[in-house]
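New to this. Comment on this protein:
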Amino acid sequence: MRMEPIELEPKQTLFRDYKNDYEKIADRFNHHPFEESTWERRLSEIRNQTYQRAELSDVLNHMNRRWEAPERTFNNIEKLKDEESVVVIAGQQAGLLTGPLYSVHKIISVLQLAKEKERDLGKPVIPVFWIAGEDHDFDEIHHIMMKQGNGMEKMTIDHTPETKASVSEITIDQQKASSWLKNVFGMVKETEHTQDFYKEAERLLKESDTYSDFFAKVVYHLFPDEGLVLIDAHDPEVRRLETPYFSTMIEKNREMASGVYAVLQKNRQEGYETLLDSELDDAHLFYSFEGERVLLVRDEEGNYRGKNNEVVLSETELLKVAEETPELLSNNVVTRPLMQEALFPVLAFIGGPGEINYWSVLKPAFEAAGLCMPPVLPRLSFTMIDRKTGQQLEKFHIPTDEVIRSGVKEKKMNWIASQSTPQVHHLTEQVKKEIDSIHAPLREKSASLGADLGQLAEKNLEYILENIDFLEKRLHHSMESRHQHEMDQFENMEWTLHPGGGLQERMWSIVPWVNEYGTTVFQQMNRHHLSFRNDHYVVYL
């Protein structure tokens, strides 16, 4: 395995400034992500805050026993009781077989930064991954994308939950899930790893009650020796620890919401993308009502209502819920970071471009809740290249970074055009010029006899040129058929390295890579020393 960094200009303006021109948006954050002085200042902030370390450790211990976590995970959970220990944290929804590759890339990012900062600071730094089990958008996690021929196919599990419940509350339909898994593995070629991987995935699935369980078990199968600690944010035991933090979020709700809204407007005025939708009356909390997760808003009387008036609670009643049945409450994208900060001694949070965009408006919410925003680091980003695709890049002399940035569609057209002499496009352009010249006297004569005849002559020329364009397309099609093998190679490069016009990590799943290179492939990536200053890494397998 070989890994090389490449420059990859961020598409989002805010994320680009965050990485390359931080001073422009420094007022939205508490810590510069790449200054050495950041870390000692952050440790000082953590020392001034209190945490339920022993209680959280007990909850994590119980939760991870259920997932049969590795021994090193429990060692790190025990270290959490140490007042000097801190954590590096990231999170994601409980995607099937971990979902898109960027979920695994986040995990590698957490492991890398935890290892680096433990060495630099001389203190225990625990890698933590937050499973957003409270999320109810099942459509976001119920599928993976698999390469099929010259394209990608969405493999969706045939399970429709009866209610809009949190993912951690949805019991897996084992029969449908097993059928889905079989279909997924039916799309990969048989290798020395296929049967072992399939049987292990099938076993982990059967031993899982919920999709969050399945996610956790697969992650530990991929990273068995790294000491990663997983937490399901929607576990009732976790919720019981969160009572005082929910109470603060309710009591300071108006202040938090107005602060977030103000920075969001500032971002808009300065031309930054606003990926977060937030209004002044948003409570940024969910309430479980009749088995469904309901988003709360504040009304003019100070009550908390369901977005569609499903339920109405006074502030006193909502505080009572936080005290007596906190498992009925859950966070949204605004309050989830606050809950992470309240529960864990967070040395750093790691997020993708979209998450960093969200975080840019959260500073007032942290301050209103009496918390301090941790350093936010952009996650590591990777594109994996299998041997076949690597050989194709070499054959056509195409630079890897160019394909990752913009694909090969233009290069494919240029290659096809170069296979004929003269090139088809140049030939048709030449013919068009000749016809235009020959046709000119007819147009002139027609125009002299009347405006209607002049227009008819112009349309006649247009019709002739359209037929030449049609012939050019047919010639291209014929040449593509003659060179079908090469066309397939270009399509493979496109869908492997620039699928759907974007990065591989946003569409591909772990399945083809583990099937080809075994379950240790991501552990091997993690063994390299990786800098968070680099835009992107190319992984040559």
Observations:
- Residues 385-502 form one domain.
